[in-house]
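Researcher: Dear colleague, please comment on this protein.
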Amino acid sequence: MDDRHTFQDPLQAFRLLAGIGLCALSPAVNDPATAVQALDSIEGLLRRLLDARLDAASVPGENGAVRVVLALPTWGDFLRTGLDDLCCAALDSPMVLARAARLMRDLLEAAPPQRGTHCGNVWRGSSRNRVSGTHPSWAAAPPSRDSS
């Protein structure tokens, strides 16, 4: 049995929550309120990561030389895993898109500059590349914050 755990795979919680939101948006279920609740939980997890150190970790050997480098997910990985598919599936759900836009605006305001800029970039990438900006709810996307 191959069980994944969040302590082994930090993106797993984001995948599970996005999956719940995707199922809720399926035509068979059509429950946008559950998708919004999934976004609420995703935002809670993302807020915990705002100030976390997310770069690669290294494990030194006895002589101090680096023996192992652990590649950890980046801030962008967490954003994309939690939001991309869910936002794209929500094109016909203004309630979910409005919540996603508010989530990104709130993260942008709370995030340190380097992460805030990434929030705007991920949002614009999702709206332009995935849905071609065709839905009016995407107009509510947060402005970018320049790091310069």
User: Anything to note?
Assistant: Residues 127-148 have pLDDT under 50 and may be disordered. The longest strand covers residues 66-70. DSSP finds five helices and two strands in the chain. Strands lie at 57-60, 66-70.
